[in-house]
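Students often ask why inverse folding is considered easier than folding. One informal answer: many sequences map to the same fold, so there is more than one right answer. In these notes we will look at a single instance of the problem. The structure comes first.
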């Protein structure tokens, strides 16, 4: 059962790529999850963190948003994902940018996640 959280991470990544990030969020994130973008103030709890999950705000503006997991690395109850965002910008230009998500796992749930990207 030690690697159960790794299987959960792989399932979560697959849901993200299928455009079902919200479903993965509801299934794999702790109620008291802490989520943070770069060095902004962390958001604590599932209710205040939902809008951060998987480009949801971007997807509302850009229907063609596609998230691709480029690579994943594992540590001690830690997963690191390199994610590529692709979509058409407001002026019709192709937007292609990477983001790194660092997830901390406990009891099969994400308890902390921080996103790193160029601003």
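Output (designed amino acids):
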């Amino acid at each position: 059962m030690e690697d159960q959280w790794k299987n959960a991470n792989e399932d979560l990544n697959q849901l993200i790529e299928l455009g079902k990030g919200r479903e993965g969020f509801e299934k794999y994130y702790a109620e008291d999850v802490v989520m943070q973008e770069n060095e902004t103030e962390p958001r604590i709890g599932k209710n205040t963190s939902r809008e951060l999950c998987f480009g949801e705000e971007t997807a509302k503006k850009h229907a063609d948003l596609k998230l691709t997991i480029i690579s994943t690395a594992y540590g001690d109850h830690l997963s690191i994902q390199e994610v590529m965002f692709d979509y058409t910008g407001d002026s019709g230009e192709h937007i292609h940018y990477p983001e790194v998500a660092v997830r901390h796992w406990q009891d099969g749930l994400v308890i902390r996640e921080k996103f790193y990207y160029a601003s």
